Amino acid sequence: KEDMTKIYGQMYLDCRKKFDYAPLGIACESLAHLSGRAGKLLSWAEKQEDARICVVSHAGFILAAAGHVLGIEPHSHHLSCDNASVSAFEFKNGKWKIKLWNLASDE
Question: What is the value of pTM for the model shown?
């Protein structure tokens, strides 16, 4: 964070608030694209009858998926998620449910 702030200044800090770094002009994924990918994953998973699916990803993607499930804007600061944590989603009777959220090590 400190190095990026030195390079990009306030623009970087503003981008961090929105989790959208595209305005910096660096090669990165926009929040809209990330959210779209999370929605596509959930749609695909809905079609996998009686399947248990493990998705390994970074916290940003998990937050985007949770945003879809809960019907809130991705990264709206209603939720937080640690990297290397475990969350569990369930699709049952046509609806998504978050069964476990952000289980992390007690270190």
Answer: 0.77
CA distance 58 to 85: 9
Block residue for tokens 């640690």: 82
* N-to-C CA span, the chain: 23
CA dihedral 99, 41, 22, 13 (to 10 degrees): 10
Q: Which residue in this structure is represented by tokens 């770094």? A: 21
The pLDDT confidence band at residue 87, using thresholds 50, 70 and 90, is: very high
The single residue listed with the structure tokens 């959210």 is 35
Contacts for 16-25 with beta carbons within 8 Å, 24 or more apart? 18/75, 19/60, 19/74, 19/75
Q: Are 67 and 35 in contact (CB under 8 A)?
A: yes
pLDDT of residue 77: 67
pLDDT number for residue 95: 96
pLDDT of residue 75: 67
